[in-house]
Design goal:
Radius of gyration of chain B: 34 Å
Strand order of the largest sheet of chain B: 1-2
Oligomer: heterodimer
Strand content of chain A: 25-35%
Number of strands of chain B: 2
Structural class of chain A: alpha+beta
Helix content of chain A: 10-25%
Shape of chain B: elongated
Order of helices and strands of chain A: HEEEEEEEEE
Mean pLDDT of chain A: 88
Largest sheet of chain A: 3 strands, antiparallel
Structural class of chain B: mainly alpha
Distance between the termini of chain B: 62 Å
Radius of gyration of chain A: 30 Å
Largest sheet of chain B: 2 strands, antiparallel
Shape of chain A: elongated
Mean pLDDT of chain B: 92
Order of helices and strands of chain B: HHEHHHHHHHEHHHHHHHHHHHHHHH
Strand order of the largest sheet of chain A: 1-9-8
Chain lengths: 190, 597
């Protein structure tokens, strides 16, 4: 009674694509229904996949890095770690390490701040005391103490200066931001 | 365009491949009963698609699994739909597997020469169940945690290697990071890879042997495309519609309270298709457990394996059909018993409700604080007065006190309470009730205490006698004085709920304070109130405030409070029954302090 004795699959009885109107409607219905079936999971998947695009753009956070009297004019730049209050996806960090900043005291009231990320491709640049220049150990971009490109350089622009404010008689505050790598213009990362 | 296709075809032969795939011969024409294999393939495809995107957002780890699923569910746009589809498709796969299995047996498609393909199918059934089982733990909520523990304990029952096997599966003596990383690797890596291989073999063998047509054949032979595909597409659409309906109805997949080994969950249940086995295990006593957990399921599986061999004979085929029906009936009966037991079990419902409350509270706290602390979501609940207060009350206070008539957690009392109801303690309303001669002897106030039923002698306490004897004789002026004094007393508590009333009635309260200090209504005869000398009754300075409650709970028998008249109220500070953190949580909850979000 069972069909195990059926012959192996034979060639199609009808040549495919015979142009029959009924066949066409059936095929169209298959494709339409098939598409409808996967619409919801694909839509939900794409929505979640594109979720990061909907996150609010970071606007730069003002952070207190040191006191003015801890920096000595003429001593060259010093590297400071930056911690901010931040939500990393689901985790709330009271102090989350987000990067480093070079601070250099220029005179009585002025402090210069550079984002330590190389404007070329984001490696952390170092201050080379002997040569008095910033140097990127990844692709050998070099910058003067003032942040200007030392040619020839793979970087398209000089180091990214950050806004500095001296508050309450000697607190050094810096607005920490990331900038788009590899381009000439200094564009905050949105 | 055509040239490009021709080029691609000449290099890959894709046209012939598509033709082979689509122009499968369907003897006797397309039929609805052939759709189940396709619906399962569709379901698996959807699981892969949704699963991979979930994978991109999931983090296996004891302090990140629940948290990342919370993020998927509550924060990511579309996340609850995605997870909901993944969850409910998994639920629907089980009945689809059963239908596919039934059709194969009833139509005799499991017999020679298709035995091997039937065994592949059984393998796929096992793999699907294993993927469901491993996926159940991944959200790391109470339900998944406690019910998967049962499963890994069953593993230890395997003879000889059981303990080692359990250790390898769990990754440690206790559940933790290693359990999640292992379960996740199995769920998203090893088992799906095996599934794909086995499906490929299953489909290849199906193609080799061809479709087993239901006899008698209804009509002329047809092609898989588009006739059967149309049937399949309709069936798949129905499956997806059912899934979407379930997602909508249940508002997505459940995410319970975060797994907490210190918070027993008495509603630990596996997914519904394992409920029959869950119920079955109740019938095996002591160490006979292995008969229910391994031997019997093993024998059933063996019997299923043997079916194609038995099916060679007509009688064998009938036997197989009988076994199948009996098996399904048994499965259905056990499942129904399990669910109906739970439906009539008060403790089960209470545990479910508690877990739901905790889940909502955790989600609320995580959202309000814009994230979860690094210690994980459990820390949110651990430091939350609204969560811990009722639990501490139920375990420490509810042996005597009630809270709004229940034990703090909502369970009614079996014995009458022997101490006052503490809901609203210190509020004007609570104090008014206390001073009411009709209420003071009720169980809501002193009805269960030694102040009304003294152990020695027959005299009720001075306070109770005062309320019973003097208060009913109050004139209009005294009633007004009492009202003012109670307002003043209640203002000492600085209850958040009474903040506005206290500010509004500042004059009234000041008058009340003065009346008290002037000795009106005899209060000051026994009670200290912003004075130096201790009275025989409790001190009313800062009455029911956070500081007062803290001191009182530490030692109610201190002379500042009840002194030697203390009934049975324990000194929580002396006996270390509650530490400072727990005391603070309990007090904040009792005073209905708004949580720090």
């Amino acid at each position: 009674m069972n069909a195990s004795s059926d012959a192996a699959p034979t060639a199609p009885a009808l040549p495919p694509g015979s142009g029959d109107r009924r066949e066409f409607l059936k095929s169209a219905a298959c494709i339409a229904l098939g598409g409808a079936c996967v619409l919801a999971p694909v839509a939900a998947g794409v929505a979640v996949l594109l979720g990061p695009l909907r996150l609010p753009a970071p606007d730069g956070a003002w952070v207190l890095l040191t006191r003015l009297d801890a920096l000595r004019a003429g001593a060259g730049p010093r590297l400071f770690q930056v911690f901010i209050e931040r939500t990393d996806a689901w985790t709330r960090h009271a102090r989350s390490a987000v990067g480093t900043v070079f601070l250099e005291r220029l005179d009585e009231t002025t402090v210069r701040a550079f984002q330590s990320a190389c404007p070329h491709l984001g490696c952390a640049v170092e201050w080379r005391r002997q040569k008095t220049q910033y140097f990127c150990p990844c692709h050998n971009s070099a910058f003067t103490a003032a942040g200007a490109i030392i040619a020839p350089s793979p970087a398209a622009r000089g180091l990214d200066a950050l806004d500095v404010e001296i508050r309450d008689e000697g607190e050094v505050w810096v607005r920490f931001q990331d900038f788009k790598a590899g381009v000439k213009a200094k564009v905050p990362v949105a | 365009m055509k040239r490009a296709w021709d080029w691609l075809d000449s290099r890959t032969g894709f046209r012939a491949l598509a033709r082979t795939a689509l122009y499968e011969h369907v003897p006797g024409g397309a039929r609805w009963r052939y759709v189940w294999g396709s619906t399962l393939s569709f379901a698996i495809a959807v699981q892969f698609l949704t699963g991979v995107i979930l994978w991109m957002n999931y983090s296996p780890g004891a302090q990140s699994a629940w948290e990342s699923v919370y993020y998927i569910q509550e924060v990511l746009p579309g996340g609850w739909w995605l997870r909901g589809i993944h969850h409910f498709m998994a639920q629907l796969m089980v009945p689809l597997l059963v239908l596919h299995f039934l059709q194969v047996i009833i139509d005799g498609a499991y017999r020679a020469p298709r035995e091997v393909n039937y065994w592949f199918g059984l393998g796929l059934l096992g793999l699907t169940l294993a993927i469901s089982l491993t996926g159940y733990l991944l959200p790391w909520d109470q339900r998944g945690y406690w019910s998967t523990k049962v499963v890994t304990n069953l593993i230890s029952g395997v003879p000889v290697v059981g303990d080692d096997l359990q250790r390898i599966v769990v990754g440690d003596a206790n559940y933790g990071h290693q359990t999640l990383t292992r379960f996740f690797a199995m769920h998203a890596g090893v088992l799906p890879a095996l599934l794909v291989l086995l499906i490929a073999a299953h489909v290849a063998l199906f193609r080799r042997h061809g479709l087993t047509a239901r006899q008698p054949r209804r009509g002329a032979d047809a092609m898989f495309w588009p006739d059967q595909v149309l049937h399949d597409a309709v069936a798949c659409s129905a499956v997806m519609a059912a899934v979407l309906g379930l997602v909508w109805w249940f508002r997505g997949a459940e995410l319970g309270a975060p797994a907490n080994p210190a918070e027993p969950y008495s509603a630990a249940r596996p997914d519904w298709y394992f409920m029959a086995l869950f119920q079955f295990l109740k019938y095996f006593e002591g160490e006979r457990l292995i008969w229910g957990s391994l031997v019997f399921p093993g024998l059933v599986f063996l019997l299923l394996m043997l079916m194609p061999l038995l099916g060679r004979w007509k009688l064998g085929h009938r036997f197989n059909l009988f076994v199948l029906c009996a098996g399904l009936a048994g499965f259905g009966t056990l499942t129904a018993i399990a669910f109906s037991k739970d439906a009539h079990d008060e403790h089960f419902h209470a545990a479910v409700a508690q877990a739901e409350r905790d889940a909502e509270r955790t989600k609320h706290l995580a959202t309000a604080r814009r994230g979860i602390p690094t210690e994980g979501a459990l820390a949110l609940l651990r430091e939350d007065p609204l969560t811990q207060g009722p639990r501490l009350f139920a375990s420490q206070c509810a042996s005597c006190h009630t809270y709004a008539g229940h034990d703090g957690l909502g369970a009614p009392f079996t014995e009458p309470p022997s101490a006052p109801d503490l809901a609203g303690f210190g509020s004007r309303q609570w104090l008014r009730g206390f001073m009411d001669p009709r209420q003071i002897e009720s169980l809501k106030y002193f009805g269960g205490t030694a102040f009304v039923h003294p152990k020695t002698g027959d005299k009720k306490s001075r306070m109770v006698r005062y309320i019973l004897d003097k208060v009913p004789a109050y004139g209009a002026e005294e009633k007004e004085q009492l009202e003012k004094i109670l307002a003043a007393l209640s203002a000492e508590a600085a209850l958040p709920a009474q903040k506005e009333a206290d500010a509004r009635d500042a004059t009234l309260i000041a008058e009340g304070k003065k009346l008290f200090s002037d000795g009106v209504l005899e209060c000051a005869d026994c009670h200290q109130f912003h004075t130096e000398d201790a009275g025989s009754g409790p001190d009313f300075t800062d009455y029911a405030s956070t500081a007062w409650l803290g001191e009182f709970l530490k030692n109610p028998g201190h002379e500042r409070f009840y002194g030697k008249n203390n009934d049975r109220m324990p000194a929580f500070g002396k006996t270390s029954r509650l530490n400072a953190r727990e005391l603070a949580l309990l007090i904040r909850w009792l005073r209905e302090e708004p949580a720090a979000n």
